[in-house]
Amino acid sequence: MFDYQAPSQLLKNKVILVTGAGDGIGKTAAITYAKYGATVILLGRTTKKLEAVYDHIEKLNYPQAAIVPLNLDGAAEHDYVELANTIESEFGHLDGILHNASLLGDRAPIASYDPTLFEQVMRVNVTSQLLLNQALLPLMQKAEHASIVFTSSGVGRKAKANWGAYAISKFATEAMMQLFSSELTELSPNIRANAINPGATRTSMRANAYPEENPENLATAEDIMPLYLYLMGNDSLDINGQSLDAQ
Ligand code: NDP
């Protein structure tokens, strides 16, 4: 596991957007960021799940969260503008984005991969990250230090048979991280961009990808949080353009 012990107030006064915050790793990251002092904006497509995370954060007396129901498949430019306007009026700035939401798509050969599904996976896993960053960069420029964290995968570095659109989307995510990282160095040196490869983690996506596997043998989302905290907090100010393993 990535070795980092976060100070208890690491994210105090930070405003952090987490996509796919209703389930799996995103849910745990949102709750963990709130535990370390952040005001978390919970973005996802299933409002009920987001409300459950919101209630959990409230029950633990962490800073009050905010909910943004948004389906990243089919979200239009005006949705992103509206999101930026809401964050601007509520908080005035943004200190971090965790791009975590993803679709697995089909485990199928690329030669016969359904083109409609291919486009859907690319919209959710890649295009939405671009549109979110473009809409929210002005708000991140207003932060003292801001961090963009992308979520990669082992198959985003070395593609494996039958990982189809998902693998391609994760290669694209690595490239997007590198582009933002190098270009922001000039444009907005207060913003850094990095990626996390979570490694095999006990979630419903992993269970769908490996139905034969015993989930008990896998790391939990809680186990992998040290790297999520490290990259979002100010202890990683000199880390930019890296793709790091959580396990
Ligand atoms: P889950 O499927 O458990 O959670 C994914 C989250 O993304 C869900 O909350 C889901 O919402 C949300 N989401 C999916 N589609 C959309 C959409 N169109 N609009 C908005 N939100 C959406 O996945 P994990 O927690 O396992 O994965 C988190 C990240 O980690 C992903 O980027 C994944 O690729 C990556 N990863 C995971 C690994 C693992 O072993 N678990 C290994 C390597 C990488 P809803 O709950 O409503 O479906």
Automatic annotation (TrEMBL):
Record carries keyword Translocase: no
InterPro entries named among the record's database cross-references: NAD(P)-bd_dom_sf, Sc_DH/Rdtase_CS, SDR_fam
Top-level taxonomic group: Bacteria
Keyword Iron-sulfur assigned: no
Gene3D superfamilies: NAD(P)-binding Rossmann-like Domain (3.40.50.720)
Protein name per its UniProtKB record: NAD(P)-dependent dehydrogenase (Short-subunit alcohol dehydrogenase family)
One Pfam match: adh_short
PROSITE patterns according to UniProt: ADH_SHORT (PS00061)
Protein family per UniProt: Belongs to the short-chain dehydrogenases/reductases (SDR) family.
An example molecular function term from Gene Ontology annotations: oxidoreductase activity
Keywords of the record: Oxidoreductase
SUPFAM superfamilies documented for this protein: NAD(P)-binding Rossmann-fold domains
